[in-house]
Each structure stands twice: as C-alpha cells, then as structure tokens.
Amino acid sequence: MLKKTRGVTPIISDLLLAAIVVAAFAIVYSASTGITTQLFNYFSGAFDRIQEDLIVEEAYIKSGNATATLYVRNIGGVTTKITAIYCNGTLIQLISGSQTVKVGELTILVVKLPKAPSQYSPQKITIATLLGNKFTFRLVAIP
Amino acid sequence: MNSKGSSTVLGALLFIIIAISVASFTFSLSLDYQKKWKDYLKRQELRQREKIEIVSVENVGLDTYIKVINIGGEAVKIAAVYINHRLIEVLDEFYIPSGSERTIIIKNFNIEQGDYIKITTDRGNFATYYVTG
C-alpha cells in the first residue's frame, strides 16, 4: 500500500508549482497589458491635443443683450468635444448648438453671458475641450 | 549537470524580450508623435499660404454678387459668408484656385451701405469688406 503512493507527493508539488507559475504569469500579463494600454492612451491623448484647433470665425455680441452667438469652426485634425465655455472667467450657459465638432465643421453656439455687455466692451471667451485644450478669443460687443 | 547554465540563458532571453518590447513600444509612440506633429505643421503652413480678398460686392437684381480673388499660393475652400456678424450662407464645395477669381451669389439678399461682409475659409482664414457706396 505504501509502495504504491510513494511518487504522488512530487507529482502534486509539480502540479502545484505549475499552477502557481501560470497564475503568477496571468497576473503579471494582465497588469502589464493594463499599464501598456494606459500608457498608450495617455500618450495618444497628448498627441491628439496637439491636433486640436478651434477658431471663433465670427461672433454676434450686441450691447445690452446677454445672449451671444459664436460661430466656431474646427480647423484642427481631430474631432473636438466642447466641455465648457467661459466669459471673462465665469462659466456660461450654452443655450443651443452642437458641442461635438468634426474636422472642418462649423457649429453655431448660442450662449448666455453673465450680464449684458456695454458697447465696445471686450469679452474674453474661453472654450475648454475634453482633450484639455483651452482656446481664448477676445470679442467686442457691437453697438 | 547538463542544465547548469540554462537559467542564465533564460534570464538573458527574458531580458532581450523585455528590452525589445520596451524599445518597439517607445519607437511606435515616437513615430506616432512625429506624424501628428508633422500634420499639425503642414496644416499651419497651408493656412499661412492662403490669402483671399474681396474684390467687389454689388447687388444684381434681387441677389448679391461677391467677387473673391485668391492671391495666395494654395487653392482655397470658401466655407461661409457673414453679413453684419450673422451667418448668411454656408458653402459646401466652393473652391478658388490660386490666382483666380470667383463670384459668390447670395440669392434673394441685397446689401446696403454700411454693411460689413466677411467670408471665411475652411482653414480659418478670412477676408472682409465694408460697403461704402
């Protein structure tokens, strides 16, 4: 009886060792894949940030009127998602207009300014995007 | 006895695999970066080479004719027409070759004295015109 089970322990230990090695490999593989993907996404996002470019090609800001119209064109190389618009450092409300702008596309943003501007008063408009860029333009209210 | 040096060989192999992986990852990232940077510079260059001017603006019947000349070194695509800071017309496929003139026709719209006209290109350049007389 004893003679028959003599070689079992080394086999079990081998199997256990193999299982531990496989498990360790799986953990290391998944961790390294995760890190590599995160690194790639980080750099890829940074590269896309270079490509992003917006321009306010025209704006209609009339004195005494707190609603302004911004004609924003994507002149960059990637689709832009506008996340926030600021007027003189204050977050302003977007009344209408698409916040996602494809390459070459024009979006008409109607925004609510914090207060109605006086004539010829400069308004510093900042457009923030999902990729982390900020585009600032100086617009002047017409009489 | 025979397997005495195998761990050194395996270690060296593992090191080579890791080194090649890191090098290829870094190389592909830097290639991607260079390509995007090159695209960006190319776009800026094309933008700077663009130059358009509005030659004349006149009412013809019920329409407005805006004559535009491209005096830059690149063909331009006119994207939009604004009058008095308001979008009047979006143009889809309106190209002007370099050194040529083309007329934009705004249907059923007449300009008046004091009107401010702005035409923009898809690369973000523009030309303006003030109607005087």
TrEMBL record, chain A:
Highest taxon of the lineage: Archaea
Name under which the protein is recorded: CARDB domain-containing protein
Originating species: Thermoproteota archaeon
From TrEMBL, chain B:
Keyword Transmembrane among UniProt keywords: yes
Positions of transmembrane segments: 12-33
Keywords: Membrane, Transmembrane, Transmembrane helix
Name the record gives this protein: Flagellar biosynthesis protein FlaG
